[in-house]
Amino acid sequence: MLIVDDEPIISRGLRLTIPWETIDVEVVDTAHDGEDAIEKVIQYGDIDIVITDIRMPKMDGLQLARFLYANYPQIRTIILSGFEEFEYAQQAIKLGVDNYFLKPVDINELVENVKEITNEMKQKRQQKKELDKIGLRNAILQQVTNLQRSSPVKSDDYNDFMIYSFISMHQNYKRKITSLSEGEYEEFLRGWEKSIERKLQEYGLTSYSFFTEKNILVTCVHSDDGRKMTSDIRQSLIRNDGLNLQFVWSDEWIPVEELMVVLTELLNKRKYLAFTECTSIIVSDQLRRDTLQSYPTKLEEQLIEAIIQMKDLDLHTFTNELFGYFTIHEFFLDEAVQVCREMLNKILDHYKSLSGKNVRKWDLYYSESINVHEYNSFELLRELLYLDLSSIRKYQSELKNFDKQDLLINHAKEYIHEYYRTNIRVHEVAEVLNITPNYFSSLFKQKTSVNFNEYVNQLRVDEAKILLAETPFKVNEISEQVGFHEYKYFVGVFKKLTGMTATDYRKFRNLQDRKTGERS
User: Fold this and answer.
1) Has domain 142-282 been given CATH number 1.20.140.10?
2) Mean per-residue pLDDT for 127-153?
3) Domain boundaries in the chain?
4) What value does the mean pLDDT of the chain take?
5) Which residues pair with 281 in a beta bridge?
6) Are 79 and 90 in contact, with CB atoms under 8 Å apart?
7) Which residue of 124, 169, 267, 493 has the fewest CB atoms within a 10 Å radius of its CB?
8) Strand, coil or helix: 352
């Protein structure tokens, strides 16, 4: 509060004899006229209430009130006057003056009036603070939800608010949540968010947190009084309630509209946590990979040879060696996932070449998309690979019941059934199986008791019989559709396998259908 009066005795009396501190008011200074008051309003910058006399040299109380009303409308003004003229009071009301007291002033009334004004101002400030919180939260949320856009969203209304951002991730997240029910999982997320909020509140900081995806909690910090995020605060969060979190910290306070850019940088830096021993990283840390992420060819050869030849291989030892390699060579999590997937695909391709489509039914984790935010450690990814290799070992034991030659023929049959309507040849199927045509022909006859052409012709004739009975197509058209490109050859093969011509077969089927219809 500022007291303005050209009589020093009055201004000192108002300042020193009234216990303003009892109503939570501080008198910061006094001024001897309007011009002096304006200088001090500018000097202090945060004056809330001005009590001023009306008659003063240079600039009187009404002129001062007019200036404040025009330039500092948030300042509340009380006028003290020895004049009862209605004109003064009327002008004061037009200038937004809160009250007009006649001298000698009733101190109790003055104090009560100031108390009412301060309470009203506190209430309005609290309301504004709450509205600002909501608005700032929405502005931050808008930036967070538009993280995937190519350009940031402007938040002009709240761009004067400076924020500090960081992200937190739960170590070994998937292991933590696997056994949780849906309700327990929601409680886990709320507890995580609230623990960070409470810890920041202990340091007088307001925070806004949002999960951008599973295991990525974005937190934006705001301070009303200029407090900063210190290393002590960061360490306190790291040690917070044994939550076992990892952090990536920003290194500066930014306007809200720059948040999307900073979040992108935070997420990129997160990748380095995979192979470092740190639980937190600051964006400004000079992080780089000192080694080449070369493909673990020797380990892959060791694995594939052991799996395909069914040699003994300690899967725990192998997976530990592989992920030790990833750590030493500073692989990011998504790069490790890609390597594991390539290794498994090579094993699957081998069995696919033997047993055809059956291998597609193998249920492997690395055959699906793996979210490295959920499986956010080498340990979790190693466990998945171990489970997949164990599953392959199990599938191998089932495949032992098949002779390798049986697997080749099964694959051949799948291919023939898919392409028998085309001009399929022995050499084409042999090439798919990666064996010679002569060996394939001999093996096919051995396993099926018919030669390749007899098997294909039987499939074509069976299809032709269906078309003859169920469609109006001409015989020569059906011949072409089922894969016989020479009509005469079709006629001969059909009669040989069915004992009648195609035309007689159609008549026979039509007669059977009529008899069936009459009986029904």
Assistant:
1) no
2) 77
3) 2-105, 142-282, 297-399, 404-519
4) 88
5) 248
6) no
7) 124
8) helix
